[in-house]
Amino acid sequence: MKxxxxxxxxxxxxxxxxxxxxxxxxxxxxxxxxxxxxxxxGVLDGSLTLRKSCAHGICGSDGMQINGRNMLxxxxxxxxxxxxxxxxxxxxxxxxxxxxxxxxxxxxKYRSVQPYLQNEDPVPEKERLQSPAERERFDDTTxxxxxxxxxxxxxxxxxxxxxxGPAAIVQAHRFLFDSRDKAKEERLNVLDSREGVxxxxxxxxxxxxxxxxxxxxxxxxxxxxxxxxxxL
Amino acid sequence: MIYRGKEGQWSxxxxxxxxxxxxxxxxxxxxDTMLVGWGPEIYNKVMSIYRHPFFKIGEVGLFAxxxxxxxxxxxxxxVDFWPRGTQYHRQMFYGEVILFFLAMxxxxxxxxxH
Lengths: 232, 114
Prior knowledge:
Strand content of chain A: 5-15%
Number of helices of chain B: 4
Distance between the termini of chain B: 43 Å
Order of helices and strands of chain A: EEHEEEEEHHHHHHH
CATH architecture of the largest domain in chain A: Orthogonal Bundle
Number of domains of chain A: 2
CATH class of chain B: Mainly Alpha
Order of helices and strands of chain B: HHHH
Number of strands of chain A: 7
Helix content of chain B: over 70%
CATH topology of chain B: 3 helical TM bundles of succinate and fumarate reductases
Distance between the termini of chain A: 54 Å
Shape of chain B: elongated
Largest sheet of chain A: 5 strands, mixed
Radius of gyration of chain A: 20 Å
CATH class of the largest domain in chain A: Mainly Alpha
Oligomer: heterodimer
């Protein structure tokens, strides 16, 4: 099938602002948007710049706005989309080139919530035991692949780039509700602040955009409720 | 292109618009009530402007804004405080839309025919 693509282009060395260019490629209906973009890059215009790595929905590097919604280009089939397929970089970040955005601030916020297990108790003889119910408590938020689809779909983040954002809260949730972790206070200092969870307006764009189907808004609401009732 | 959000995004956009609308009304209302301090003549003169058909429709719009804002406010409270609220936010939104129209149809009729 013939697939028409309308891709936002921006070369900082030549362009003063981004513009759209149209392309048409031959694809199988079961091809993904990533395959179509790579065909454009391989056959029509080698200067088209994008991030991609595993191409199987695991690494999270090809997050982009496709027909107005954030998705992973490797997880959506061309046959399921209205044509021309409009492709833009993730919103709210500085564009480096074409579909590549500067994610430095995103990963700074990720690091700010200390996304690793912390426990200063004496190391037990074997593993730190956890019941299936305790593990289930944070199961949903272990699935995050840091693609930034949630954060860049959030109007609160667009209006306030200092907002820690849904992805960092999801990462914090994963450790806040882990029975083995002991560093709740450090994370809550970040989350219980002006730029923390209270910026969330329960708009649900994050949950709708998540390619891993994490209920992001629920995770944020759980942190909010636990802060409010001082349960954490 | 505007982000193609779903029910959550549009319910939030409407919540903001109706919130600003109600706030603007309240500011105007404070100002017109304040005019009574300058005597009944000027107050009655300004009040007579409100009898214009434009304001009659505006009143229906004001009721609609307050009603939507209140109903969606309840939905937001449930999303925030009911642990399963995030799972049912869409259904709650559609329920809210049904309640909105059920209330708006008779109220609009009553207000406009009065």
